[in-house]
Amino acid sequence: MPDPDRSPDREAIRQLKARYFRFLDTKQWDAFADLFTEDAAMVNGPEGQDPVVGRDAIAAYVSESVTALVTVHHGHMPEIAFTGEDTATGVWAMFDQLRGPGGFAMDGWGHYHEEYRRGADGAWRIARTRLTRLRVTSSSAAVTRALWPEAPDWAVEGD
Questions:
Q1: Do the Cβ atoms of 52 and 41 come closer than 8 Å?
Q2: If the chain, 159 residues long, is cut into consecutive pieces of 10 residues, what is the mean pLDDT of each piece?
Q3: Structure confidence at residue 124 (pLDDT)
Q4: What is the pTM of this model?
Q5: Which own/partner contact pairs does 56-62 have at CB distance under 8 Å and 24+ positions apart?
Q6: Using an 8 Å Cβ cutoff, are 138 and 144 in contact?
Q7: What are the backbone angles phi and psi of residue 9, rounded to the nearest 5°?
Q8: Structural domain range at position 20
Q9: How far apart are the first and last CA of the chain?
Q10: Domain with 18 in it: what CATH number?
């Protein structure tokens, strides 16, 4: 009997995103890269930022950004919608915590807005991802402003 909810595909996308967070935090960059389509695009900054394009470029960009840091990323409450037999979109509430040398600290809340595509190998991968921020707290006001440029002045801590 057909599954109108597409439960196996929905679960595969949930597992994909779970691996995204785990591979990111454990810095498994080859495995992280394989979570993306070859032509994937990522935007993790303010509106208007040019995307990072290509799975290898995305893995390099993310690894350069966080290799020296201890990171914890959580994704919650996925909203997954199927747009075709082999395509879907998703929105994930998120929280991330980054700690680094010299007392660097950053906590962020927001949403991942994503598109997924199933490949010829049957695996779902991330084709597009954009992180939007609702709030950022940091030991550096410059970091807060860079990641959350629309922040009201009262919300900017640090420096």
A1: yes
A2: 80 98 98 98 85 98 96 97 97 97 93 97 98 90 82 73
A3: 98
A4: 0.91
A5: 58/33, 59/29, 59/30, 59/32, 59/33, 62/24, 62/29, 62/32
A6: yes
A7: -70, -40
A8: 7-155
A9: 60
A10: 3.10.450.50
State how many domains the chain has. Answer: 1
- What does each C-alpha distance from 9 to 3, 5, 126 come to in angstroms? 10, 9, 13
CA 85 to chain CA mean position, Å: 24
Q: Which of 109, 80, 63 is nearest to 17 (CA)?
A: 80
The answer to whether residue 18 is domain-embedded is yes
3-state secondary structure of 135: strand
pLDDT at residue 35 in the model: 98
Distance (Å, rounded) from C-alpha 11 to C-alpha 15?
Answer: 6
- Using alpha carbons, select from 143, 158, 1 the residue that is nearest to residue 65: 143
